Amino acid sequence: MRLKLALALVLPAVLITALWAQRAFRQYPSVEYGLSIPLPPDWNVPAEFVWARLMYAGGPLDGYQRTGRFTGPWQEGLSLWTQDYPRADRLLAATLRRLTRIDVRSVEQSVNPDDGDEIYNWPFIYAVEVGEWQLTQAQANKLRDYLLRGGFFMADGCHGAEERAFFEKTMKMVFPERQLVDIPNDDPIFHTVFNLDDRMQIVGAEHLREGHKKDGYVARWMGIYDDKGRLMVAADLNSDMGDSWEYLDDPRYPVDYSIMGAKIATNYVTYAMTH
């Protein structure tokens, strides 16, 4: 009885402390939309799951940085981490609400890996354009610790051999002893909600005519596992998942790509919340 009473008193306090420890929501300017995307009416309503987006500095392959088209402090949103943001995040959040029973917040959370222990507050982290990003060793060390503690990282928007090589190089900073391997079709992540044995390459809106970006002709789904066989990192190579969500309600974008992107994201989120 004393134990039950102690738990009844302590657990709410722990949950309240965790909520207070999380950074408040903030909308950053986007490389595509600036600050033009309005907030949904329920943006400040808390939920059990939040789509968290990793912030990062532009790397040597970052086209915006090389051309000077969009530069500035990445901590203020002036980097490719805001590609497809926040439109893709919010349309996907609405889709997850419809396709699952997960209580999903209507707005995303941008997470700065240099911001103390903030990353540990979010069990699922997403990053876009990971072939053009840049991590410091300190950030890589924190990402490693986050993943080994049970976190999940979804990496998107890596196109062609050059970007893949750079992404693999940065992931070796995170896990020098682990390999990025193909995720087999029978992995649970492809069967949590939808059976996804037959996946297609998802082409971005700007590359529909070519059918691919750069020399990324064939889609691959790759990952990194922990010692118990749990998938910690899931990377879609030569596909543009972000565009599949960003244009969910745009009739000019192929609906098959949006359906596939929504299914894959639903499976990934469900897997991350249950493994």
Structural account:
The chain is an alpha/beta fold and 275 residues long. It is 33% helix and 13% strand. The chain has one domain: Rossmann fold, CATH 3.40.50. It contains 7 helices and 9 strands; from the N terminus they run H-E-E-H-H-E-E-E-H-E-H-E-E-E-H-H. Helix 4 (137-148) crosses helix 5. The longest helix is centred in the first third of the chain and has 20 residues, at 2-21. It starts with a helix and ends with a helix. Residues 1-20 have low confidence and may be disordered.
Question: What is this entry, summarized?
Answer:
This is DUF4159 domain-containing protein. By secondary structure, this protein is α/β, with parallel strands linked by helices.
